[in-house]
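Two proteins follow. First one:
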Amino acid sequence: MKETINVNIGSQAFTLDKDAYERLANYFADVRSRLADSDTETMDDIEVRFAEIFNESRPSSLMVVTLRIVEQAIARMGRPDDFGPARQNATCNNANNANVNDGDASLRRIRRSRTNRSIAGICGGLGAYFGIDPTLLRLITLLLILFGGLSIWIYVILWIIIPEETAPVINNLKNR
C-alpha cells in the first residue's frame, strides 16, 4: 500500500504516489532554480505540459500518477540542465532552505494525518510520530473504547487539540 498525495498541476487536480510527488517536486525545484525569478510564465507552461502528459498517460482520471508515469513525463520534457545553468543565488537559497527543513525535521510534532485517516487522523498521526502501524493503534483504541479503558471523549479532545498536518504544496510561490 502506498501513500498518495492530491496536488494541482497546471490548474488540474491529480493524485500522485508519494515517491512520484517527491520526484516531481524535486524536478520542478531544479527547473525553477534555472529560470529567472521573473519568469513565472515558463514554469506555468511546464506545469501545464506535465498535466497534459499525465492526462495522456492515464486511461482514467481516477487513476493515480505513479513514479513510472512521472519518469516518462520527465524524459519527454527533458533534463533540468536543458533549461540552462543553475543560478548561483538559487543554489544558495535551496541549500539554505534544505538546512532550515533539516532543522525542522529534528523538531517532531504530533499532527493529525491528512492521508492516513479513518475518522480524524489521530491514529495515523500518532502512528507516524511513534513509528507504529496506524492500523494497530486503531485496533487498540477501539478495544480500549469498547472495554472502558479509554473514553470516547479523550479521542474527541485529541481531535480538537492536535492540529492537522499541513497540506503538501507542489508550487511554492515564495520561490517564484
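Second one, unrelated to the first:
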Amino acid sequence: MDYFRKLPGFRRSASGLEWQVLRKLPWILLLGTLIPAAFVYVLYLSELLEPKVMDKTIIITIAVVILHWTLMVVVGFAAFIVMIMKGPAYVADPYYPPDFKDRDDDDDPLRGL
C-alpha cells in the first residue's frame, strides 16, 4: 500500500509571504528581545528611577519580552503550516461508514487517479 500517493495533475503553489516571514523571524525575535532589554539596562545604569519603580519596570519588560516570544512562536507555526499546505497534495484512502453494504475491499475507487 502506497501511503504517500501524490494527487496527479496537482500543481504546487508558489512560495510567498511565509518564506519571507520564516527568514526574518530570528532577527525579529532577537531585536524584540534586545531593544527592551537595552532600554531597561540604560535606565538601570542611569539610576533615574526609584528602586520600587525600577523593579516594576523590569517586571513589565520581562512580561513584554515573553509576550513577544510567544507571538513569534505563533507566527512561526502559522508560516510553517502555510508552507506545508502549499506542498504537494496526496490522495487519501476512502473511508467507508459501518453501514455501507456494497464495500469491496479489493477495489480502490481512487486507484485510477
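SUMMARY FIELD: The helical segments are 17-46, 51-85. Residues 17-85 form one domain.
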